[in-house]
Amino acid sequence: MTVLTDSRGVPQLVEQPSDIAFVESAIVQLVSMKLDHERCRRSFRSAPPVAVQLMLAVDLLSSMERPAALRAASIHASLVETDPVEPRTRAMLSAIGSWAAGDLVAARNGFQGIVDTYPGDAVSIYTVHMLDFYLGDAPHMPAPTAKAIEVFAADDPVIGYLNGLHAFALEENGQITAAIERCRIALAHNPDDIYAMHAMVHCLYETGRHDEGARYIREYMRGRDSSTPMRIHIWWHYALFELYADNFQEVLACYRVGIRRKTSLRSAEDLDAVTLLWRLALVRPSLDLSAYWRSLYQDWEPYLEESWYLFNDFHAYITYCQVGEYGRADSLMEAVRARGEAMSEEMTDIFLGFRSFTTGDYEDAATRLARSFHHAFPMGGSNAQRDVIELTAIEAALRCQNHEVARHIRDFGRIFRHQSPVVQEYENRLAALRTSENHTQGVLK
What we know:
The chain has helices at about 20-30, 35-40, 50-60, 65-80, 85-100, 105-115, 120-135, 140-150, 160-170, 175-190, 195-205, 210-220, 230-245, 250-260, 270-285, 290-300, 310-320, 325-340, 345-360, 360-370, 385-400, 405-410, 420-445, and strands spanning about 1-5, 10-15. By secondary structure, the protein is mainly alpha-helical. The protein has a domain at about 1-135: Alpha Horseshoe (Serine Threonine Protein Phosphatase 5, Tetratricopeptide repeat), CATH 1.25.40. It is globular, with a radius of gyration of 23 Å. The model has no long low-confidence stretch (mean pLDDT about 95).
């Protein structure tokens, strides 16, 4: 093995000098979310060079699925056995090892240390961004990509993708105008940059532009096939826009065709199916979705043995509760605690609040969720994804006729910032509850 410096001044451990061109290409693929694992393996007689294997491990871990994490751990173990002496490779292996063991904070800090030493390390910059997202640490997201954009050359093949990463970081921190500008820059470099497109979708959601968002997604996804990165998640966004517009038949059609047709049978792409179906059940309780839930449960049933990441755990938990598998839900909570992950009081409230909602104890659900929905970020996910907690909280408050809690969520939450048919319906129910409450007080006097 030999150490060669790539075009950004980053040392890469390869078998021979000709490998560096493949490494450079793989870096762009990783950052654009298009790393082809099969091609990486087929392109070499034996194993890919160490530099490429490190990227494969990072990409596997980025799925946040336990089976993929185990494959990454296998790559990590085989590379550790070679005992590489090159400092960056050793640092990468340490950070990857932490991630594979479920310690996302140590992994994030490890990759940040690599960036501090090698500011041109696109792989580590990308990884820090993803880990900040998985940790729900939005405040730390903008700085690494902002600094990278200043460091990288204007014609670097990854500069557009870095702008896309930065756009999403800005959006999650409420800097929508700046985020939109970064999206435009990114898409001007690479019109098929799915992450930049996704950031633009979030900006449209955050500004209440539901019709525009639905059109934007339809136009972008036209002609794209099942290999499109983030395909199911993008269709989830489309369904969310249609949900708020009160187009429920379109939501169901999107659920069946766009979201439940997965890339692979066992996949965390089911995350989006869970919260879309849950939202639909909230705003249209008259719909009989039981068959959809039972089908979804079949895919989530084995997850109890794959518990690894809190955000995924949450989706499995509410699926179990929704179909009445409370013993399995309780076992999942025990598994989360057993792996050493502390369930804060707020996070426990969120899990148990959803459980109470499915049992019809709306008072308990409203109380738990109303006091904790502002503290949901440690579970990971985006602001838009975590909105399901707030939506469930106000629905629970309205069902148990707790006007005070419902008004609190109305005044301090996110979903009432912009008008839509569904939001207006909640406004009407809240107004009716207040009128009823005032009338009752008047009679008692």
